[in-house]
Amino acid sequence: DTGVSQNPRHKITKRGQNVTFRCDPISEHNRLYWYRQTLGQGPEFLTYFQNEAQLEKSRLLSDRFSAERPKGSFSTLEIQRTEQGDSAMYLCASSSRGDGYTFGSGTRLTVV
Amino acid sequence: AQSVTQLGSHVSVSEGALVLLRCNYSSSVPPYLFWYVQYPNQGLQLLLKYTTGATLVKGINGFEAEFKKSETSFHLTKPSAHMSDAAEYFCAVDSSASKIIFGSGTRLSIRP
């Protein structure tokens, strides 16, 4: 297990299209997190899972955003009807409590 | 509610000089504290963490940080800066047993 894997690394999409990102966490970590980072800012919390249960969602996560973690393994983040304001780096991380997070390299989304 | 304030969005030091990046936090319960580093177009890498016990924490690449409860601070230091230290640094707090909240980041530049 080499760490947290995110795919794709880059995604360019037209406004109004749907996009889906995937995150494969470290296998022994039961917690999985999604963050969004815009240029010059720190990561902003979006949502997190403990095993397959989605325990918290940020107000940043509008109705166009949905995240899943079937069977408590990998996770997907879908954005419907993308807007230019959705352009950002989407970061996934996994952890066990108190150990700090291990981050993936992120998926950079550009909406044109 | 928990929050993190990083003083100085940009810090510039000479190679070989002391590095000091400032972080203050707000938390109603004893927090876990973290410093992460981010290189361009990459995810975040954990530098060091404070959970309990010794308040002076040593991390990777020669960095260390001291937890000062009375000052609600967790400043990051390195005795001698190296060119490879140029990056974005994020302080983060976890006091909710659910998610980490990040500061807005400090960009560290190293002058030859």
Tell me about the largest β-sheet of chain B. Answer: 6 strands, mixed
General shape of chain B: globular
Percent of residues in beta strands of chain A? over 45%
Question: What's the overall average pLDDT of chain A, rounded?
Answer: 92
Order of helices and strands of chain A: EEEEEEEEEEE
Low-confidence stretches of chain A: none
Beginning-to-end CA distance, first to last residue of chain A: 35 Å
Oligomerization state:
heterodimer
Write a brief structural summary.
The complex is a heterodimer of chains A (112) and B (112). Chain A is mainly β and 112 residues long. Chain A has strands spanning 5-7, 10-13, 19-24, 31-37, 44-50, 53-57, 65-68, 75-79, 88-95, 102-103, 107-111.
Describe the structure.
The complex is a heterodimer of chains A (112) and B (112). With 112 residues, chain A is mainly beta. Helices cover 0% and strands 50% of the residues of chain A. In chain A, the strands form two sheets. In chain A, strands 2, 4, 5, 6, 9, 10 and 11 form a seven-stranded mixed β-sheet that branches. In chain A, strands 1-3-8-7 form a four-stranded antiparallel β-sheet, with no helix packed on it. In chain A, a hairpin with a 6-residue loop joins strand 9 (88-95) and strand 10. Chain A is globular, with a radius of gyration of 13 Å. The mean pLDDT of chain A is 92. In chain B, strands 2, 4, 5, 9, 10 and 11 form a six-stranded mixed β-sheet that branches. A five-stranded antiparallel β-sheet of chain B has the order 1-3-8-7-6, with no helix packed on it. In chain B, 0% of the residues lie in helices and 55% in strands. The mean pLDDT of chain B is 92. In chain B, strand 7 (64-68) and strand 8 form a beta hairpin. Chain B is mainly β. Chain B has no helices and eleven strands. The A-B interface holds A 4, 6, 33, 35, 40-45, 48, 55-56, 91, 93, 97-106, 108 and B 9, 32, 34, 36, 41-46, 49, 51, 90, 94, 97-105.
